[in-house]
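A further point concerns the way the authors explain their paired sequence and structure data. An entry of this sort, consisting of the sequence and the corresponding backbone structure tokens, reads as follows:
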Amino acid sequence: MSKTIQLKATGETVTFLEDTQTTNGERLLLEVSLPPSGEGPGPHMHHQQTESFEVLDGVLGVQISDERLELRAGERIVVPAGSVYDWWNAGEETVRFTALVEPALNMEWMLREIFASCNRRQAGGPLPWDGSYVITHLRGEYSLADVPAPVQRFVFPLMAAVGSVFGLVKVSPKTCTVYDRDAPASPIGRRSVLLGIYFVSRLRLVSTQERGNEKTGANTGSLT
């Protein structure tokens, strides 16, 4: 497994200096590189993890709740668990920094799978089915601050279930469940799968009926 991953659409790279396996899940140490004008992940929250940033080169913009900061080489900041925050390149040169995540939980899995999905899509964001699957499986650990909670709690699991049933999800199974035993169980279960199948079946039925009506109308028109 590669130590460095790259999001090709943005040029962002992440190198795993200390990974989940070698630290037995205690921490994850990353070195991140982001080109000028590069955007970070967007506002989000780690419910159970503390994340510490230290800038090596360039200028890193960080927003924690309503506080905006610019960190330069040698400066460091700690983001407590449960904080809503975002980061980006705030300078004219590539910014390079380390990020220490404690404990590791499923952060490495998330980064690898999201980067892979973005690269399959050839864009800065993941495929909707993949993104829904990842966020659903990180429930209790990670959430998006700019997406309504009901969407993350109900819509994303439904999309993940439908995508899994019909082979649309290309994400590898989560492998670090031993480290998030206190998180709520994944909501993708038998009920979600059945709802997903029902939802898709209804869509197909409606589509079939519409096509049948169109044919009937066409035939009727040809007889007059």
